[in-house]
Amino acid sequence: MPELNLDNTDERRRHLDIPLMKLDEKYTLTILYVLRNGPIQKTDLINIVASSSDTVKKRVDHLVEEGLVQEVRENQRPFRKMVRLTEKGKRISCWVV
Fold first, then answer.
1. Which residues pair with 71 in a beta bridge?
2. Which of 32, 59, 74, 89 could join 85 via S-S bond, C-beta 3.0 to 4.6 A?
3. What angle separates helix 42-49 from helix 28-35, to the nearest 10 degrees?
4. What is the Rg, in whole angstroms, of the alpha carbon atoms belonging to the chain?
5. Which residues are in the HTH hxlR-type domain (predicted)?
């Protein structure tokens, strides 16, 4: 099996299975970085990222579409909607510094 040179952007993109230009949108990498610590409420994510709620919601929606994060509703009171990384998101977030 050939060795992967993940310093090469094209190889990294193929290996991670997502266009890197989509990760370049403002706050997207920050959101992935924050979610590495575990699930978080969207309102807390907005406060941490320190951006408008619309921007963060759009980025989260985009990350959901890409299969990198998922929104889950907790089944205990108070009912909260949490955002967390998927397995694919965890692989991608490993590259976020």
1. 83
2. 89
3. 120
4. 14
5. 23-93
* CATH code of the domain in which 31 resides: 1.10.10.10
Number of C-alpha atoms within 13 angstroms, CB side, residue 24? 4
pLDDT at 5: 46
Q: Answer for the pair 71, 35: CB distance below 8 angstroms, yes or no.
A: no
pTM of the complete model: 0.72
Distance, CA of 51 to CA of 63 (rounded, Å): 16
Q: Is residue 31 part of a domain?
A: yes
Query: Is residue 94 a contact partner of residue 68, using CB atoms and an 8 Å limit?
Result: no
Query: Which residues of the chain are under the pLDDT cut of 70?
Result: 1-24, 97
Is 68 inside a domain boundary? yes
What six digits make up the tokens of 42?
Answer: 């969207």
Q: Which of 33, 97, 43 is nearest to 68 (CA)?
A: 33
In eight-state DSSP terms, residue 84 is: E
